[in-house]
Amino acid sequence: MSDSSPPPLDAAFATGQVRNPISRVLAPIRSRLAVAAVLAATGAMLTLVPLAGIAHIAGTALTDGPAPSAIGWAVFVSVVSLFAGMALITAGELVAHLADNRLTHQLRVAVGQRLMQVPLGWFSERASSDVKRAMQDDIGTLHSLTAHFYTTLGRAVGALLISVLYLFAMDWRLAIVALLPFPGFFLFLRRAMKASAKHMDGLVAGMTRIDDAVVEFVNGMPLVKAFGSQGNAQDRYRDAVDAFAQAFTGFTRPLVASMAKANAMIAPVTVLGGVLLFGTLFVALGWVEPVQVLPFALVTPGLCAPLQLLHYITHDLNNAVGAAQRVLALLDTPVLPAAACPQRPTGCEIRVERLSHAYTPHNTVLSDVSFTLRPGTTTAIVGPSGAGKSTLARLLLRFFDPDSGRITLGGVDLRHMATSELYQHIGFVLQEVRLIHASVADNIALGRPAATRAQVEAAARMANIHERILLLQRGYDSVVGEDALLSGGEQQRLSIARAVLLDPPVLVLDEATAAADAESEAAIQDALSRFAQGRTLLVIAHRLDTVMHADQILLLDEGKVREQGRHAELLARQGLYARLWALGRYQHTEKKALPTC
Ligand code: ATP
User: Fold this and answer.
1) Residue nearest to atom 2 of ligand 1 (CA)
2) What single DSSP character describes residue 481?
3) What is the topology classification, in CATH, of domain 350-592?
4) Which residue of 365, 542, 557 sits with most ligand 1 atoms within 8 Å of its CB, as the best mutation to test the pocket?
5) Which residue, judged by its Cα, is nearest atom 24 of ligand 1?
6) Using an 8 Å Cβ cutoff, are 152 and 338 in contact?
7) Strand partners, 373
8) How far is the CA of 293 from the centre of ligand 1 (A)?
9) What is the Å distance from ligand 1's center to 195 Cα?
C-alpha cells in the first residue's frame, strides 16, 4: 500500500447520477462507440445501394429500353457505394476495437487502484475468485459489448432505416403492406421474452446450484473419499444437473415456440409472398406499375437478417449487464480511509483502548478490549475458539478499522498513520500464508524490493529456509508454484523471512505453526525465537504450553478480556485460565517454549 492516497479512481467510472451499469462502465468510451456505430450504420446503408441500383437498372431497361449511360452510371454508383460502405464498416470496427482496448485497460487499472485502497481484511478466497472472475471473464464479456455490439447495432439499424426509407420513397402504400409482417415479428418476440423471463430466476438458481455442487464435489473430494460419502456428493451434483436440465426445458419450451412463429413471420419467403400478392393486387387495381414492385421484391426479404441480428445481440447485452454489475461492484468496494495528514509515531508502544468490533451488526466479536504492548515484551492472547483472537490481530494490522475504540502505535492512532509506516513498524506472520507467483527471492523481498540478494539470503537463513531454497532447481530464482513447490511449513518460513527482511520492531504472530509438520514446526519455532529477540511480540496462541514464558497473557473469551497476567499469576487465580490449563485444552504433549525476547 502506498503512503499517500493513490490517484483518484478514474472519474469516468464514478457513480454520479448514472444508475445503469452499462452506461457507467462505458462512460469513458461512449463518444467513440457512438462514432463507431454511426460509421457502421452509414456503411450498412451504402452497401445496400447496389440493390437500389439493380431495381433502377431494371426499371430503366423495362420502361425506356437499354440506356448504356444510365446503366453505366448506376453500376458505377453501386460499386463505389459498396466499397465505400465496406470501408466505413471496417473503420467502425476499428474504432470500436480501439475503444474496447482503451476501456479494458482503464477498467483493469481502476480495479487495481481500488484494490490498493481496500482493507486487507477484504482479501479472502471469495474475494480472489471475485477479482479473477471480474478481471478475466467479465472484462472478456464486456469485450463483445464494446467491440461488437454497437457496430452490429449500427449496421442493423442503418440497414433497416435506409431500406424502410427507400421503400416509402418508392411507394408508401406498397411499403405499408410489405412491412405488415414485421409488427407481427415483434409481437411474438415480446411474447417469447415474457415467457422465458418467467423462468429466468429458476435457470439462474439452477446454474448457481451446479456451480456450488461442482465446487463441493471437487474441493471435498479428499474428504468424501476418506469418509466414504462419495455417493452423496455425486448425488448432489447429479440432482443439481437434473434440476438445471428441467429448468432449462421450462425456459426454452415457450421461447422456442414463440420464436419459431416470430421467425416465420419475417422469413424471406413469407415477406416475398406478401409483396408479390399485394403487388399483383395493386397492379390489378392500377395503383402501381409492375416494375414498381421490383424494389420491394428485392429489398423487403432482406430486412429479416438485420432484425434477427438485433435479436441475437440482445443476448450479448443481457450478459454484459451482469458482467458490468460485477466489475462495478469491485470498483465500488469500500476503501480504507487514508489519513489526510499522516502522522509519524514516536516509539513503538502499542495501546489498545476500549476496542469493540462486529463483523455484522448485533454480533459483537470484540467488546471493550484494552491493553498495552510495551516495547521489548511478549504478550500472548489465548482463549477458546471464536473468542476473537485473530480479529484482534487483524485490527492491530489495520486489516480493517474497529467500530469503536482505537489502537495507537507510538501515540498515533493507526487511522492517522500512513499504511507503509504501520507496516514498517509492525511485521506479521499469519496462519494463512500468501505467496505471489514470482521467484522465491521476490517473495522474500516483497516488502523491500530494493534488498540485495545477500540481504534476502540472510533473512532466509534467519528463517531456517535458506538450505531448503538451495535445494530447489534454480535456488532463489525458482518460481513459486512452478519449480518452487513448498510445503505449508516451508511457505510459513518463507513468510517469516519476508518479515525478517523488513526488520520491524513489533511482530504479530497468529498460529504461525498451524500449517507445519513436526519437523517444520521446530524449525519455525527456532526461527521465530531468534527473530523475536529484542522485539515487541504479540502471539495469538492456540496452545497454553507455548505461552508460559510470556510477559503478559490476555485470556479472551467471547470478545472480552477475562483474565490478564503472567502464567503463574493466572494459575494462582484459579479462574478460567487455570481451568483451561488443568483441562489440558490447550496443552500439547511436547512442551515448546514461546520465542523469547
Ligand atoms: P480460532 O482460535 O478458532 O481461530 P479466534 O479466537 O481467532 O478463533 P476469530 O477468528 O477472531 O476467533 O473469530 C471471532 C468470531 O468472529 C467468530 O465467531 C468468527 O466466526 C467471526 N468472524 C471471524 N472472521 C469473520 C469475518 N470475516 N466475517 C464475519 N465473521 C467473522
Assistant:
1) 385
2) T
3) Rossmann fold (3.40.50)
4) 365
5) 391
6) no
7) 350
8) 78
9) 46
Q: CB 452: neighbour CB atoms within 10 A?
A: 10
* Residue pair 530/462 in contact by the 8 Å Cβ criterion: yes
Which atom in ligand 1 lies closest to the alpha carbon of residue 387?
6
∠ CA 525-527-549 to the nearest 5 degrees?
45
- C-alpha to C-alpha distance for 268 and 178, rounded to whole angstroms: 12
Closest Cα to atom 29, ligand 1: which residue?
A: 359
What is the CA(387)–ligand 1 centre distance, in A?
Answer: 7
User: What's the average model confidence in pLDDT over 302-313?
Assistant: 86
Q: What is the mean pLDDT of residues 315-341?
A: 83
What is the CA(539)–ligand 1 centre distance, in A?
A: 16
pLDDT in tens, 242-277: 888 888 888 888 788 888 888 888 888 999 999 999
Residue 556 alpha carbon, nearest atom of ligand 1: 6
- Cell reading at 416: 492517522
- For the chain, residues classed under CATH 1.20.1560.10 are 9-331
The segment with the largest mean pLDDT, out of 110-114, 151-155, 522-526, 543-547, is 151-155
Burial per residue of 111-128, b for 16 or more beta-carbon CB atoms within 10 angstroms, e otherwise: bebbbebbbebeeeeeee
Tell me the three cell numbers of residue 582. 488443568
Q: Are strands 350-358 and 426-429 parallel, antiparallel or unpaired?
A: unpaired
Question: What CATH homologous superfamily does 9-331 map to?
Answer: ABC transporter type 1, transmembrane domain (1.20.1560.10)
Q: Which residues line ligand 1 (CB under 6 A)?
A: 359, 365, 383, 385-391, 542
Task: Give, for 373, the enclosing helix (H) or strand (E).
Answer: strand 364-373
The mean pLDDT value of the chain amounts to 83
Amino acid occupying residue 288: V
Which residue minimizes the CA distance to atom 1 of ligand 1?
A: 385
Range(s) within the chain of domains with CATH label 3.40.50.300: 350-592
Residue nearest to atom 30 of ligand 1 (CA): 359
Q: Is the pTM of this model over 0.90?
A: no
